[in-house]
Write the structure tokens for this entry.
Amino acid sequence: MPGLQSTFLAMDTEEGVEVVWNELQFTDKAAFMAYEETIKATFEQLVVVDHPNIVKVHKYWLDMKESKAQVIFITEYVSSGSLKQFLKKTKKNHKAMNARAWKRWCTQILSALSYLHSCDPPIIHGNLTSDTIFIQHNGLIKIGSVWHRVFAKALPPELHSPGRTEREDPRNLHFFPPEYGETADGTAVDIFSFGMCALEMAVLEIQSNGDSSVTKEAIERARHSLDDPNMREFILGCLLLNPSRRPTAHDLLFHRVLFEVHSLKLLAAHCFIANQCEFGGGGWEQGGREGRPWGGKAGCPWLGVPVLCLADLWPENVVEEKTKELDLSEVMAEIRRAGRLPVQWRYSEVSFLELDKFLEDVRNGIYPLMNFATIRPHSLPQSSSQALEDPQKAQTPTPEPFDVETRKVVQMQCNMDWLEERRQWHLTLLLILEDKLHRQLSYDLLPSDNARDLAAELVQYGFIRQDDWEKLAAFLEGALHRPQLSPARGAGSSPEAGGQDGP
């Protein structure tokens, strides 16, 4: 995680989910204690920030040691890594980003910024780069490091934040506008940074020269490589040097390059999803040939009308199931015109797979409803988070690595790469668990390593369950003994070790 001295992948044993354990360490314990209440108040604010496109801060506490102090806070784990890592992988096979994916990513990032900027007082991210934007395995975008500027601004000069900003890395200087760090800078700082992220997403990479900063010439080349005039206008508006002329995040959500989902369609989808989750009948009673849900009707909070409580009894693939009952030649909608033939749409002209996919995307948060709401300041609720009361609990141990894994491995893949500088093989193992969680592990192989010991170690550290040990050991055995390219003959990496589906 950018800006932190120590981060660990951890297991929340209360909720049973993977999280990230973050440590901010201070060497001046006396100064830290003098501003303890300020630090607590700052993290109380961060804990209540809640948006589907923002990495959630779950909990925090302060840990005092003999000569130093630290803030420990637990954040949401985003499974597929940073945007920069994803773009680098994409660039290997593509020259440009898919326009539809680019629009969806921009919409989600702007939705998060619009939420932060409409808080009262506004929350400025101030550390937005492609390294602080993360991707879930289902395509959901989340921006991280929201804590950084809020925390740094709350601290007095004598207690400087120990967190490193992305701006301190020369390769990231181009993400920050000229006015950054001035007394009067504001939300327009984030718009400029977003514009650079949008440009990098569109071209996949803005070339830099080694460890040096990205030059103005490289940025100009990236701008001129954009073929879509609407995309170019959208990005250039974000990168205006005068901060007062940059559009707001809310305005950008309605730019013609992004605003492609009709608001009525989105409202209907959210109403449908909400009915599945919140307004269900809760049981069945027998009546005639079919069961009927209890409860009748409930109100829809967005449309302001009563809706029938059927949806929570419908499966996720309800559209596909319902289409089997339809006569596809039947007219679905019609526009009547005086003196001319009507315009008709039949069920056969509708892509039900696209509708199912759209509902899935809405369910996963890809199209949040708040994008289309009227912008208005909102106050963050009071946090219910409390620092740990028991002093013994505040003495933070090393995160326990021996939690027992109970989920079944349903698919395994591994890859072997030869690391020329180290003269050894590097193993990358991808495990897909039954709840669709993707777990990617990597390891530098030693000459003494064997498959059975490696599998046993993964069980010991809670990466796989005991019942999968034998299956994984056999899979690794085959991968490790598969004929490899001789390092001396030097292709640099081995062929794929292949994949295997679990039972």
User: Anything to note?
Assistant: The chain has a mean pLDDT of 76. Residues 121 and 490 are 58 Å apart (CA to CA).
